Amino acid sequence: ETATTAPPPSSNAITPVPADAVPAPAAARPAPLNLALPAAPPASAPLRNPALDDPRANTRRASLETRIANTVGDGALHEEALGPGRNRFRQGSSCVETAQSRIAQIDPMNETMRGSPRLVTPCK
Predict the structure, then answer these.
(1) CA-CA distance, 105 to 116, in Å (whole number)?
(2) For 72-108, what is each residue's pLDDT tens digit?
(3) pLDDT at residue 82, rounded to an integer
(4) What is the Rg, in whole angstroms, of the alpha carbon atoms belonging to the chain?
(5) First and final C-alpha spacing in the chain
(6) Residue 75 carries which DSSP code?
(7) Proportion of the chain in helix, strand, coil states, percent, rounded to 5
(8) In what order do the strands lie in the sheet containing 86-91?
């Protein structure tokens, strides 16, 4: 007849503590949610319709001459380099892109003597 004895509790044993037994510190608690609406709108908020302050809606319409001048441009020819062998030419509302032809890329020596035509496409 041997008696069973329970081992002595060790100092490393973890004992569970119920969650409601440990109070949370006051600083960790969030502030209560304020759901009250303001009594009046803030004084800095404008009560005007924002469309009245939009410059796109409140400018004078351009005259016919001004619209034609904006569409046609100044008449000067503008050239932009797009990379090796490619250029873009703009004049008024027209625009074309040019590219070096394949034969000019393959045989650059003859290209300097005779000048092959360039490939032309409208701008995208």
Answers:
(1) 10
(2) 777 788 999 999 889 999 988 789 999 988 888 888 7
(3) 93
(4) 41
(5) 100
(6) S
(7) 25, 20, 55
(8) 78-83, 86-91, 94-99, 119-122
By residue count, the chain amounts to 124
Residue type, 14: I
SS (H, E, C) 76-103: CCEEEEEECCEEEEEECCEEEEEECCHH
Q: Would you call 68 helix, strand, or coil by DSSP?
A: helix
| Residue in the block written with tokens 């300097």 | 112
User: Tokens 């509790």 appear where?
Assistant: 9
Q: What is the pLDDT of residues 21-75, one digit of tens each?
A: 666 566 678 889 988 887 876 677 667 788 888 888 888 888 999 888 887 777 7
Per the structure block, which two tokens stand in for 97? Answer: 């892109």
Task: Kindly provide the residue ranges of all beta strands, DSSP E only, lying in the chain, ordered along the sequence.
Answer: 78-83, 86-91, 94-99, 119-122
